[in-house]
Description:
The protein has helices at residues 7-17, 35-49, 53-57, 72-85, 202-205; strands at residues 60-66, 87-101, 104-119, 122-137, 140-156, 162-165, 169-170, 175-182, 191-199, 214-216, 220-226, 232-242, 245-255. The protein is α+β, with helices and mostly antiparallel strands. It is globular, with a radius of gyration of 19 Å. Strand 3 and strand 4 form a beta hairpin. The strands form two sheets. Strands 1, 2, 3, 4, 5, 7, 9, 10, 12 and 13 form a ten-stranded mixed β-sheet that branches. A three-stranded antiparallel β-sheet has the order 6-8-11, with no helix packed on it. The relative contact order is 0.19.
Amino acid sequence: xxxxxxSLPMLTLSVALGWGLSRPALAASPETAxxxxxxxxxxxxxxxxxxxxxxxxxxxxxxxxxADGFNRAQFEQxxxxxxxxxxxxxxxxxxxxxxxxxxxxxxxxxTRVKGTQVRSERQLALTAEVRSRQRFESGQIVYQEILxxxxxxxxxTEPPTLSVMLPEQIKPGSTYAxxxxxxxxxxxxxxxxxxxxxxxxxxxxxxxRPLTLDVLNAGGLFKVGQAPEQQDSRxxxxxxxRENGMTIHTRRLRxxx
Length: 257
């Protein structure tokens, strides 16, 4: 199932380490951040590197919620599944800005993750990045909002190098272009692939999806998508395969007024 290759890494980044609230009006630089905030981020990074689920979950309040609809139990389930599939995970959390609020601290972070997965004797390499905001209250994370995210899975001796074009945000009901162009000359080689538009809610995430590939006559994918009529967030993915490699590239598309 494609979702196990694309959406699971993104959910784990988005829910596990992508925290946030609405944009602070006056955010301060990371150099001025309180020591307890810096220490908390360092501890979450270290616990994630060692896949210490109990230590990571200690930073999440029982009432934790996200803009995508995930609660604490759903996050824990997703993180457990993700760590069960990937090995050699390397997390890096960068504090971008922070602001004190009446109940605690709001922080904007960038989280980067690398890892590998072995499936049916095929090794997949993951790279991903999530930019997000978090709100801490009493030393625990209570809410999150994802600003942007992207991930890429590659396998084979020569996975296609993709140049991906997708807007970060569009208005409800509008159309958008999604292009994933293979940079290497095709020569006599053929390409297969598909583009997918998936929801980011818990119901979408945990539902398996089949994958149907098409022969790509051009040097990549060129699709026009339709945004839903209401505010939403979508995962948009390009899957491109040739005889000596595969690349799956996923980005978040925010549908907002």
